[in-house]
Design goal:
Elements (H helix, E strand, L loop, with lengths): L1 E5 L7 E5 L1 H8 L29 E4 L5 E2 L2 E8 L7 E8 L7 E2 L18 E8 H4 L3 E10 L4 E10 L9 E8 L6 E11 L2 E5 L6 E4 L4 E8 L7 E8 L2 E2 L4 E4 L9 E6 L7 H10 L6 E4 L13 H10 L3 H4 L4 E3 L3 H4 L5 H6 L16 E5 L2 E6 L4 H4 L4 H11 L5 E6 L13 H13 L4 E4 L5 E4 L15 E5 L15 E5 L4 E7 L2 E7 L5 E8 L2
Parallel strand pairs: 4-10, 19-20, 20-21, 23-24, 24-25, 25-27
Antiparallel strand pairs: 1-2, 1-6, 3-5, 5-8, 6-7, 6-9, 9-10, 11-12, 12-15, 13-14, 13-16, 16-17, 16-18, 19-29, 22-23, 26-27, 26-28, 29-30, 30-31
Length: 526
């Protein structure tokens, strides 16, 4: 039996022991290594304890729907200050008919207990690849003491062998996800065929073929269900070339509860960008916005594939396969052939123009919210008329969603190096204030700023004003701030933002690369 033995709690020690010999002796044979084992364990571990109180397992955290490689099993034990206690951690892939000890690869450090119950939390790192070298769709894990046991699952374990015939230069990334569809893109080293196998469970079961042999792959999944988690993997020449990933479709149209991230002015491939990216990868978000300047210094011109790989796709690789991104073009991105490398790298919603303005401005919906991306560097800044302004007016006038968020690169109001933009205020301020925009988020200035509610164009006495955010601290060199009369908070710091919408309230936080929250605020729906 592989088990943990806890010494008296106040001794602060917890040691992982692997007692395979005991397992064999108790079960009459068998192996601890995956499907080859036929031994069974059906009763709690027999352990002699003294004292009137017997410690037990009080909670077991579900490890997730899909595991691979090293995975954590986290549980709590009660703390009655009793004598030593044996704790067994077991797994099963046949609905609990057969139980085997997990292949534990780390010992556990026990912190001081602070309360009798729920007691101390412990995390055991499980080498799932040793126990399940392939794919197992229905796995259970159980933690047992002599008196109690708790079970988690079922979940899938995916340690399936991956074909190396089609190497990836750009790992999968989600684009233009809706409540019923998503695009998935990736790049291979050389021209290869490519398909996607997907499904609502890790077993997958559905296959969508790509368009043939190419380096730049783009596949759309259609007919999906709203607010549903889907699993997928990339396939080439009939063999999987990635592990299984997962994503969630946008919620139903009337849903107002979700989370999203925002980052801007990132494309440096420096320490600051990588630290922000690593922190963002720990977030549980539905999607993220990018406020522009994706690639410095000139939008990847001359080496667009390698520049985008180095400055965008590799830094954010840890979450691009599960969180769709919706970037807006920045001025540095436009330096590259008026944003052509930007348009080549992303598949963004259409604005209906059908020309070289496609993907430079667009809108998308997520639940009961509309997000509008505006190209504020040239079009909307220098021209107050035209198809782009007609489009924006129509998007705002015809909106039926509860929430409206506009995001752009150059801000209307700023305490940063670029300062306020009078042209943008003139062209866009009245539309934003009079057509129910709840929040405006920009980049361009390399700092964080939140304005006071601005009320420059709306004359309704009951109108509370519109908050403008500048979030340009994603990696580019920071610049000083000089607060203005509109400024509520202004900080020169590397950061990203996380937002949560719940009903009529939006909560926003600015978070540094170290995880510190430097600003927190709430906005009520207008």
């Amino acid at each position: 039996m592989a088990y943990l033995r806890t010494s008296p709690w106040r001794a602060f020690g917890l040691v992982v022991l692997a007692l395979s010999a005991i397992l064999v002796a108790c079960s009459g044979g068998g192996s601890s290594g995956g499907a080859a084992s036929t031994s069974t364990t059906t009763a709690p571990v027999n352990t002699n304890t003294t004292g009137s109180q017997a410690a037990g397992v009080t909670s077991l955290t579900d490890p997730g729907a899909l595991l691979a490689g090293l995975a954590d099993v986290t549980f709590r034990l009660s703390d009655p200050a009793s004598m030593p206690l044996k704790v067994a951690v077991l797994w099963s892939d046949d609905q609990g008919q057969t139980w085997r000890p997990v292949a534990a690869v780390t010992s556990l450090a026990q912190p001081a207990a602070t309360s009798p119950d729920p007691g101390v939390e412990h995390t055991l790192t499980w080498d799932t690849a040793q126990d399940v070298p392939g794919f197992a769709p229905n796995v259970l894990v159980e933690v047992r003491t002599d008196t109690t046991s708790l079970r988690a699952g079922p979940f899938a374990i995916d340690n399936q062998s991956i074909s190396t015939k089609a190497g990836l230069s750009r790992h999968p990334y989600l684009q233009s996800t809706t409540d019923t569809s998503t695009w998935i893109r990736w790049r291979t080293l050389g021209q290869r065929d490519g398909s996607i196998e997907f499904g609502e469970t890790p077993v997958l079961g559905q296959l969508v073929a790509g368009s043939g042999s190419t380096e730049d792959h783009e596949v759309q999944l259609l007919g999906l269900n709203p607010g549903t988690r889907y699993y997928y993997q990339l396939v080439s020449q009939g063999q999987p070339i990635t592990p299984r990933y997962s994503f969630r479709t946008a919620p139903a149209a009337n849903s107002a509860d979700f989370r999203f991230l925002v980052v801007g002015d990132t494309g440096m491939n420096n320490t600051a960008q990588l630290e922000i990216a690593a922190r963002m990868a720990t977030e549980d978000a539905d999607f993220f916005l990018h406020t522009g300047d994706v690639i410095y210094p000139a939008g990847g011109i001359g080496a667009s594939v390698s520049e985008y790989n180095a400055r965008y796709f590799r830094p954010y690789q840890a979450f691009l396969s599960r969180i769709p991104g919706f970037p807006v073009v920045g001025n540095h991105d436009l330096y590259g052939l008026y944003g052509q490398p930007f348009r080549d790298a992303f598949t963004l919603p259409s604005n209906g123009t059908g020309g070289n303005l496609e993907e430079l401005y667009y809108s998308f919906e997520w639940g009961d919210a509309k997000f509008i991306a505006v190209e504020s560097n040239t079009l909307f800044q220098y021209s107050a008329t035209g198809i782009h302004m007609s489009w924006l007016s129509r998007e705002l006038r015809q909106n039926t969603k509860k929430w409206v968020v506009v995001y752009l690169h150059a801000p209307l109001y700023s305490a940063g190096a670029h300062g306020d933009n009078v042209a943008l205020q003139t062209n866009l301020g009245s539309l934003f204030e009079n057509y129910g925009v709840d929040l405006v988020v920009a980049g361009h200035d390399h700092n964080y700023e939140r304005s006071l509610p601005v009320k420059a164009f709306n004359t309704d006495p009951s109108y509370p004003g519109l908050v403008h955010i500048v979030t340009g601290g994603g990696g580019a060199d920071l610049r000083p701030v000089n607060p203005t009369a509109n400024t509520d908070v202004a900080i020169s710091a590397y950061h990203y933002m996380r937002f949560e919408i719940k009903g009529d309230v939006m909560t926003g936080e600015a978070v540094t690369e170290r995880g510190a929250v430097i600003d927190r605020f709430q906005i009520r729906n207008q």
